[in-house]
Amino acid sequence: MSLSVDLGPALESAVRSLIPELQIAVADAAAAAVQRAMGDRLVGVDEGAELVGMSSGALRKHLAKGHIPTIKRGVTVRLRVSDLLAFAEQRARDFEP
Known about the structure:
By secondary structure, this protein is mostly helical. The chain has one domain (9-94): Arc Repressor Mutant, subunit A, CATH 1.10.10. Helices cover 63% and strands 10% of the residues. A 3-stranded antiparallel beta sheet has the order 1-3-2. The longest helix is centred in the first third of the chain and has 30 residues, at 9-38. It is elongated. The mean pLDDT is 86.
Protein backbone atom coordinates (compact mmCIF):
# COMPACT_ATOMS: atom_id res chain seq x y z
CA MET A 1 0.00 0.00 0.00
CA SER A 2 1.32 3.41 -0.93
CA LEU A 3 0.26 6.77 0.43
CA SER A 4 0.70 9.93 -1.59
CA VAL A 5 0.34 13.37 -0.03
CA ASP A 6 1.10 16.70 -1.70
CA LEU A 7 3.30 18.53 0.82
CA GLY A 8 4.31 21.43 -1.33
CA PRO A 9 7.85 21.97 -2.59
CA ALA A 10 9.33 23.59 0.52
CA LEU A 11 8.03 21.00 2.97
CA GLU A 12 8.88 18.14 0.63
CA SER A 13 12.46 19.43 0.34
CA ALA A 14 12.74 19.72 4.12
CA VAL A 15 11.44 16.18 4.64
CA ARG A 16 13.80 14.78 2.00
CA SER A 17 16.77 16.48 3.66
CA LEU A 18 15.96 14.66 6.92
CA ILE A 19 15.84 11.18 5.40
CA PRO A 20 19.60 10.42 5.69
CA GLU A 21 19.60 11.47 9.35
CA LEU A 22 16.53 9.35 10.03
CA GLN A 23 18.14 6.34 8.34
CA ILE A 24 21.18 6.65 10.60
CA ALA A 25 19.03 7.10 13.69
CA VAL A 26 17.00 3.99 12.84
CA ALA A 27 20.19 1.99 12.15
CA ASP A 28 21.69 3.13 15.45
CA ALA A 29 18.53 2.20 17.35
CA ALA A 30 18.38 -1.20 15.67
CA ALA A 31 22.05 -1.85 16.40
CA ALA A 32 21.55 -0.90 20.06
CA ALA A 33 18.55 -3.21 20.32
CA VAL A 34 20.45 -6.11 18.78
CA GLN A 35 23.42 -5.41 21.04
CA ARG A 36 21.22 -5.48 24.14
CA ALA A 37 19.57 -8.69 22.98
CA MET A 38 22.71 -10.53 21.90
CA GLY A 39 25.44 -9.12 24.11
CA ASP A 40 28.92 -10.29 23.18
CA ARG A 41 27.72 -13.55 21.68
CA LEU A 42 30.08 -15.15 19.18
CA VAL A 43 28.83 -15.94 15.69
CA GLY A 44 30.27 -17.54 12.59
CA VAL A 45 31.00 -15.73 9.35
CA ASP A 46 27.70 -16.69 7.69
CA GLU A 47 25.58 -15.45 10.60
CA GLY A 48 27.78 -12.37 10.97
CA ALA A 49 27.31 -11.53 7.30
CA GLU A 50 23.55 -11.80 7.71
CA LEU A 51 23.67 -9.48 10.74
CA VAL A 52 25.48 -6.73 8.82
CA GLY A 53 23.60 -7.24 5.55
CA MET A 54 26.36 -8.45 3.26
CA SER A 55 27.47 -11.67 1.66
CA SER A 56 29.78 -14.05 3.49
CA GLY A 57 32.42 -13.47 0.81
CA ALA A 58 32.29 -9.70 1.28
CA LEU A 59 32.57 -10.09 5.05
CA ARG A 60 35.53 -12.46 4.64
CA LYS A 61 37.31 -9.77 2.58
CA HIS A 62 36.85 -7.27 5.42
CA LEU A 63 38.10 -9.87 7.90
CA ALA A 64 41.20 -10.52 5.77
CA LYS A 65 41.93 -6.78 5.74
CA GLY A 66 41.64 -6.66 9.55
CA HIS A 67 38.58 -4.40 9.60
CA ILE A 68 36.87 -6.58 12.21
CA PRO A 69 38.55 -8.46 15.09
CA THR A 70 38.26 -12.24 14.88
CA ILE A 71 38.57 -15.11 17.32
CA LYS A 72 40.05 -18.23 15.79
CA ARG A 73 39.42 -21.68 17.21
CA GLY A 74 41.44 -24.00 15.06
CA VAL A 75 40.26 -23.26 11.53
CA THR A 76 36.94 -21.83 12.72
CA VAL A 77 36.57 -18.05 12.71
CA ARG A 78 34.20 -16.51 15.26
CA LEU A 79 33.11 -12.88 15.52
CA ARG A 80 31.73 -10.87 18.42
CA VAL A 81 28.32 -9.40 17.63
CA SER A 82 29.42 -6.11 19.21
CA ASP A 83 32.39 -5.90 16.80
CA LEU A 84 30.13 -6.60 13.83
CA LEU A 85 27.66 -3.92 14.88
CA ALA A 86 30.45 -1.37 15.38
CA PHE A 87 31.76 -2.22 11.91
CA ALA A 88 28.29 -1.83 10.36
CA GLU A 89 27.79 1.51 12.12
CA GLN A 90 31.14 2.80 10.89
CA ARG A 91 30.34 1.69 7.33
CA ALA A 92 27.02 3.55 7.49
CA ARG A 93 28.77 6.70 8.70
CA ASP A 94 31.45 6.40 6.00
CA PHE A 95 28.76 6.42 3.31
CA GLU A 96 26.89 9.48 4.63
CA PRO A 97 26.16 11.96 1.85
